[in-house]
Amino acid sequence: MNDTATIADVQIKKSMYDNVLEQLSRTAEAIDLNPNIRKILALTNSEIIVYFPVKMDNGEVEVFKGYRVQHNNILGPYKGGLRFHPSLDINDAKALAMWMTWKTSLAGLPYGGAKGGIQLNPRNYSVDELERITRRFTYALGDNIGPELDIPAPDVNTNEQTMAWIADTYMSTKSPLERSNNKHVVTGKPLGTGGLAGRDRATGFGVYLSLKMFYQHRGEELSGKRFIVQGFGNVGYWAAHFLVNEGAVFYAVQDAHATLINENGISVEDLLDHSKPRLNSIKGFDGAEEMDPENFFSLDCDFIIPAALGNQITTGNAAAIKAKVIAEGANGPTDSEGEKILLENGVTIIPDILCNSGGVIGSYFEWLQNRNGEIWSLDEVMVKIEKKIREAFENVRLTAEDKGVDWRTAAYIIAIKRIEMAYEQRGIFP
Ligand code: NAD
């Protein structure tokens, strides 16, 4: 990484954490939040940093830096993803952990919020190395995670395979008698390892459902709406898949490697077939043309789904956005300043803590399924996920209308009031 990139990176990371604190402050003012609870929520409960050595394929040892930030657990065990990304640092993990606390609260789940991961670029390692890195990270975290304490899940550059390695490593450290009771230490596992049918599509399904309900309330349909997606990973692919099945037109996409456009529509399934064997890169796909990445967010469309990293919509591009709806598949894709511009321009933002909550809702059902020794069918699961998303969506919509506030503020009001109530009922020990 060169010096310029390092400086830009630091600025981006700082503002992601700043954004979440600013969102908390805004809500605290709006609901006159108990100042003692505000103090607690502005800080994290624990921030774990581990350095751990791993033997590489060439026999050399590399030392990695891993994080787990546990923000708050007043509503239940900590819950949140693990990300493998070179830009991940403690401030990212803190911001992302806080967003998880609000998200689980808004969804009405018995969970708190956490986030973590390893600062690395997985493209630089073989599958065997990634397995050893993941297992050694799990071992280094030890009993700082656990099925009733802190339950990780997939996030950027981690997937069901990563979760299977974590579950296996964690369970292997327990006595034979206890092993099976620890399967729900992670969610997002493969089906054969206690995974939930439908967990793979849960987040993208939630993004699609939020948009469907949003347009229904305006007396409009998804069919014929034109949209673009940033990020063609788990969230971006599944969101586009469900939307296109409903007749919406997917016509531009950007990932870490390329930006593609086809005015007549891009085939979601062909793009997946192209990207899968290329370590998920969309570059070189012949069903669309490359375009200037700088012009991506200003393309003429009905809605945009940012489904990659944080701080993608900022003062640098917000004013040029023509879409009237932003459905936040990613966590924190819009920074506070960018958001002000969008709101002034009459753009509705369906906020991350609502829009991408299908993932953690699916994770909750996987956890329950493991805890109760049950196996549910895909149909059962999708009905359960849909019910929860519909409830959260309606709560946010009605609060936004009642209070005359934007959707993010409405979502925060519901989430933080639930946490405030739990603190007021339980009090502060001792
Ligand atoms: P993923 O690793 O499967 O996909 C990430 C995608 O983002 C890839 O297509 C990658 O190329 C792209 N990307 C990375 N850097 C980029 C850049 N600078 N510009 C453009 N594209 C870039 O990850 P995912 O699980 O789909 O997660 C995507 C987002 O959704 C993250 O913000 C994550 O926190 C959030 N999220 C994920 C889940 C889940 O269940 N996986 C749940 C809730 C929220």
How much helicity do the residues have?
Answer: 40-55%
Radius of gyration: 21 Å
**CATH topology annotation of the domain at 202-355:** Rossmann fold
Main β-sheet description:
7 strands, mixed
Q: Name the CATH superfamily classification of the domain at 202-355.
A: NAD(P)-binding Rossmann-like Domain
Task: Give me a quick take on this structure.
The chain has 430 residues and is an alpha/beta fold. It has 13 helices and twelve strands. Among the domains are: 144 residues, Rossmann fold, CATH 3.40.50; 154 residues, Rossmann fold (3-Layer(aba) Sandwich), CATH 3.40.50.720.
Task: Explain this structure.
- The protein is built from 13 helices and 12 strands.
- The chain is an alpha/beta fold and 430 residues long.
- Among the domains are: 40-183, 3-Layer(aba) Sandwich (Rossmann fold); 202-355, Rossmann fold, CATH 3.40.50.
- The strands form 2 sheets. The protein has a 7-stranded mixed beta sheet, with helices on both faces.
- Helix 1 (3-31) packs parallel to helix 3 (90-106).
- Mean pLDDT is 95; it is low at 1-14.
- The structure holds nicotinamide-adenine-dinucleotide.
